[in-house]
């Protein structure tokens, strides 16, 4: 299973153009997408999953243009964790997480015992099983974030797209979620995530895509992209860096 961008230009209102993206997101890799606010990180994820049309180029899933892939197949293979969640109707945490099994369910069939077991296992893994009977709207931001990740874990896609997965999370749960993401790659899944924390990117990502204001982009191995000379130009902010346990650590100057 492969997801690929072919000369892809995302559609950002008011921006004339952008660097065409031609890159493959391979199983076993964690990609970090970095850049200042407003450069199109979330738009890129939504384009890659088919929620927004590109300005130019195309997205291919298993070498097929994404619009030609049946919606059910897309929903089974691609999973998106949104930056923020809006709950359209009252539901418990368990009911919300079970929604991840909808792409796999037959029409007019209730969730199976296996579906329920998958949802409960995902809630356990994200440390929110004690909240299973709570209404989602009563949760804190961090708890809601972990429920969102548990829902996609229940869905079990081959390609994960995560928009700021550590948003609202305390330090312990940040590390736990990033460890989960790493384990997904080790299982052979593809992971793409937007991040603002350079140190999390340096610790957990294999490859980095940098999106610059104005539409320029560059990408490559994390060790080549995550260097002060490149990052200072990306953010317009002087940085200081050191190394800890074999990984670079960045601080604003």
Describe this structure in words.
The protein has 253 residues and is of the alpha/beta class. It has one domain: P-loop containing nucleotide triphosphate hydrolases (Rossmann fold, 3-Layer(aba) Sandwich), CATH 3.40.50. It is built from nine helices and twelve strands. It has helices spanning 41-48, 71-77, 93-98, 113-125, 141-155, 171-186, 198-204, 222-225, 228-235, and strands at residues 3-9, 21-25, 30-34, 56-61, 64-65, 78-81, 159-163, 190-194, 207-211, 217-221, 239-244, 247-252. The strands form three sheets. Strands 6-7-8-3-9-10 form a six-stranded mixed sheet, with helices on both faces. It has a four-stranded antiparallel sheet with strand order 2-1-4-5, with no helix packed on it. A two-stranded antiparallel ribbon has the order 11-12. Strand 11 and strand 12 form a beta hairpin. Helix 4 crosses helix 5 (141-155). It is globular and about 55 Å long. The chain starts with a strand and ends with a strand. The mean pLDDT is 94.
Main attributes?
alpha/beta, 253 residues, Rossmann fold, six-stranded mixed beta sheet, 12 strands, 9 helices, 33% helix, globular, 24% strand, four-stranded antiparallel beta sheet, single chain
Fold blueprint:
Layout: E1 3-9, E2 21-25, E3 30-34, H1 41-48, E4 56-61, E5 64-65, H2 71-77, E6 78-81, H3 93-98, H4 113-125, H5 141-155, E7 159-163, H6 171-186, E8 190-194, H7 198-204, E9 207-211, E10 217-221, H8 222-225, H9 228-235, E11 239-244, E12 247-252
Parallel strand pairs: 3-8, 3-9, 6-7, 7-8
Antiparallel strand pairs: 1-2, 1-4, 4-5, 9-10, 11-12
